[in-house]
Amino acid sequence: MPPAVDSCRELLKANGHLLEGLADRGRFEGQPFLIGPDGRPDARVNAFFASARMRSKSPLTWSKYAQSLAMWLNFLEVLGRSWDDVTPDDAEYFKEWRLSEARNPKRVELSTFSANLAALRAFYRWAAPRFGVADPVAATDDFDLSSRGARRHVVKWLDPGGYRRWRDLGVRGLAKDGRIDPRWRGRNEQRDSAFVDALYGSGLRLTEWASVVVDELPDDAPDRGYATCRLADACAKGGYGHPYWLPRQALTSVLGYVEGARARVVREAQHVGRYEAIAQRRLVTVRDQEVTLLNSDGTNSEISLNSLNPAARRKLFRETPSGLSRGRPSYYSGARSDHADDQPS
Length: 345
Hints:
Elements: H1 3-14, H2 16-20, H3 43-49, H4 52-55, H5 59-79, H6 88-99, H7 110-131, H8 160-170, H9 189-202, H10 206-210, E1 226-231, E2 242-247, H11 248-259, H12 261-272, E3 282-286, E4 290-294, E5 300-304, H13 310-313, E6 316-320, E7 323-326
Parallel strand pairs: 3-6
Antiparallel strand pairs: 1-2, 3-4, 4-5, 6-7
């Protein structure tokens, strides 16, 4: 086992009592928790991730901010500096190191540094007044770390025909003649094709669409070109759900996957008892816009589907004659893995 893995496990073991008590002090699942090189956490740094400023952010933003802040803290550790006693010169050197220092083997683009800077500015705007520390990244008339001239992403539009060509070649593994490319090594083409069809057709963000459950989709209506749907508040960026429209072809692709490849994967998982091995699962006993969850202690909880965030939806199961099945019957969980045992199906 790599030494880094051993070190992480030792740190988790040594700080297990701290992690167990976080929920009692207003922490929540998925919240970043940073531990220093000496094996001790800085309560002030971790309080930032528990603040109201960060609770309103998405898990993706939590991860990005945590990575940027950890990188900054590691940089200061090498310099023998502390985050609460730094100057704009230290921040300027950090920018130089990230962008142009010849000794840095992993220099980044200006746009990447801009994301780092956004995280640091959010942290110091929150920490400076609370702990009486200077803000080394605050912009002034004489000092501004902003990456002016950062290269913007090149956005290319695809018309429906161009999109279908991209999907067939890159997602379904078809050659230009419509036949399977013998060099194709992809998996789960039906799932992935259904996912990108709906993503392209609805205009939803990646995490938003990956969080939708089948119960939130209407039945197919052959006489309509589009289906009217609504994104849940807990799954929308900013926490405000809204209507969206799904092309019928995308809807039927999703429903076809649910009845086809997904059903096969669920049966395989049930056969080997894969779902029973998942910790912290919640059984859904009644499904509608208002759902009843069966807790591990036998009690029930009533909760609105609209208030269940993506993390909570991944833990939903239901009892069927064939055994446990995903109570979150979403057809796709994101392109992170092709293994049926580690993704909602």
